[in-house]
Amino acid sequence: MKSPIAVIGGTGGVGRLVTRKLMARGETVRVIGRATLRARRHLPPLAQFFLGDVREPETLRTPLYGCGAVVYVMEPGPGSRGSGGPAGTPESGVVNTLDTLLRGAVSGGPRFVLVSRPDSPGPTQERLTGRPPAGEDAVRASGLPYTVVRPGLRTEHDIAEACVQALFGGPGTRRPAPERALA
Fold it and tell me: pLDDT tens digit string along 32-77?
């Protein structure tokens, strides 16, 4: 991909793996996260780190500008509990990110890969409530090309590989189609 790829939540476990896999392919990666020290400790030296928070859309403009793809990893960590943390705002974070992307989008917009939260009830919730896990409906309605990866019982490495395959394809990969999720 010629344009940079943004990884939101790139300092978490899955996000770091996605970042490393993309960089191993020679991609330019912009990691957006809330922890500068964690980024310094865990990210490859050539990863571009941007301090940002999905609850504050103005912090997303610069790192998302010109990106050809975005991988959004919902992975609440120990400092994210409560209504003010990312665990309390999964849908609004996705909406803020999509709004920022769409305001600066060129024709077609960037590809969007959403990794649903690991603790998301997934298909069971959808069957019982008729509503997908938080944020998925906003992604579907955005008009951007997208893939939703639902973690289920996958390992972090499997989830990261599913994200990369969603962007570039690969053996056994179903091409992302609207209204479908990789389960």
Answer: 999 999 999 999 999 999 999 999 999 999 999 999 999 999 765 4
Identify the structural domains of the chain with CATH numbers, from first to last. 5-182 (3.40.50.720)
> Of 11, 70, 71, which is closest to residue 44 (Cα–Cα)?
11
| Segment (H or E) for 14 | helix 13-24
With beta carbons less than 8 A apart as the criterion, state whether 120 and 152 touch. Answer: no
Spatial separation of the C-alpha atoms in residues 173 and 19, rounded to whole Å? 20
Torsion angle, CA of 65/45/80/67, rounded to 10 degrees? 20
Give the lowest-confidence range in 2-11, 67-76, 112-121, 143-152.
112-121
